[in-house]
Amino acid sequence: MSVSLSFLSISSLVSVAAEIVAAVGILGLAIALIVAIRRVIAQDGYGHRAAPRGIEDWSANGLPSRPYGV
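Given the sequence above, the corresponding structure tokens read:
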């Protein structure tokens, strides 16, 4: 009977180890997916803010970018 008890304890340890390996694998896949999504967004350009526009004067239909008094 002690042989069957030791077998059960070994099988339960193997089961726990398999669950831990599966959990670590799922966590690794989730992290890899997040990294891949961030890279795609960064390469696409939508993940970055646009560069500030220059401070050069412009005009549209004869109206200046700055008030006339400045």
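The helical segments are 2-44. Try to locate this feature in the token string yourself.
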